[in-house]
Each structure stands twice: as structure tokens, then as C-alpha cells.
Design a protein that fits this description.
mainly alpha
Length: 165
């Protein structure tokens, strides 16, 4: 699947907000890398990559409406925005539903119900750890308690925990 038109539209929707664009591009890159290394079936890989691109679609609205981009607001507002955003792309309805669900839960760590969800959480965290300068103990806790994929754990180790495996 060619995801380029969706990526271009998402860049346009960011209205030049460099942080938002860079963030979703990095999350997409990590999600793509983890998904490919974990051998996801193609349709699930496509779903994951599209969810990674649009996962923070609600950030501009949240800044305007709430004055911040807290996860609970992103999840709440993101589901509606994602469904509307994806309408023009003629994606399978099952895929749209899953992407909407993932966007609406990408800050919820206790309801992970699939490998696509798991990888999206891991990819977003890999980027957020750097952007928010998380302390090493918080990163180690995520490694121990949340990260499940071999590739996600490996990346977290190489980037932040400085372990050779």
C-alpha cells in the first residue's frame, strides 16, 4: 500500500508545526522498523504504519481547545478526527476501525490487545523518551513492564540503556 498520500495530507494538516511533523515521522519510522522486523502480515503492517502517521492527529485541536496535548484529550478527540481524515482514501472499513481504535488508545497502556497496538506504544515511547528527556529509571520501567517485542526492547536498549545484546 502506498501510504505517501496519507503522510503528505498529515504534514499539510500540521500547518507547519515542525515538532508535530517530526514526531509522527519518527514514530512512523520506528513502527515500520519494528513491524517489519517482527514479521507482521502486510495488512497489519499497513494498519500499524497508518496509525503511526495519524496517532497524534488531535494535537493541534487539543492545544487550541484545552491548552495542552494531554494523552486523554488526544485519545478522545483523535478518534473522531481520524475517521474524518481517512474518509477520502478508500481504505477497508476494518482497517479504518482499527486505526481509529489505535489512535483512541495510544496513551492507554493497560488495554493492549494486539501486536499493532503494542508496536505503536513502543514506537511512540521510543520517540517520547528522547523528546521529553525521560529519566533512565522511567525508561527501564517501561522496558521491564510494557515493552514486549524483541525489536522494541532491542531498540530501547541500544538507544537509551546502552546495552549490547
Amino acid at each position: 500500500m502506498d501510504i505517501t498520500p496519507i503522510m503528505i495530507k498529515m504534514i499539510k494538516e500540521a500547518h507547519g508545526h515542525h515538532h508535530d511533523i517530526n514526531h509522527f515521522m519518527k514514530v512512523h519510522s520506528f513502527a515500520r522498523t519494528i513491524g517489519l522486523k517482527e514479521n507482521l502480515p502486510q495488512e497489519l503492517q499497513d494498519t500499524l504504519e497508518l496509525a503511526a502517521i495519524v496517532h497524534d492527529i488531535a494535537c493541534p485541536l487539543c492545544r487550541e481547545k484545552y491548552g495542552n496535548t494531554l494523552g486523554k484529550y488526544q485519545e478522545q478527540e483523535g478518534m473522531i478526527l481520524t475517521r474524518t481524515f481517512l474518509e477520502e482514501f478508500a481504505l477497508p472499513e476494518e482497517m479504518v476501525e482499527r486505526i481509529v481504535y489505535l489512535v483512541g488508545h495510544h496513551h492507554t497502556l493497560n488495554q493492549i490487545d494486539g501486536i499493532d497496538y503494542q508496536i505503536l506504544i513502543e514506537a511512540d515511547y521510543l520517540v517520547n523518551a528522547d523528546e521529553s528527556q525521560y529519566p533512565i529509571q522511567a525508561i527501564q520501567n517501561m522496558y521491564d513492564q510494557v515493552f514486549k517485542t524483541a525489536t522494541g526492547k532491542q531498540l530501547l536498549e541500544y538507544i537509551y540503556l546502552k546495552k549490547d545484546i
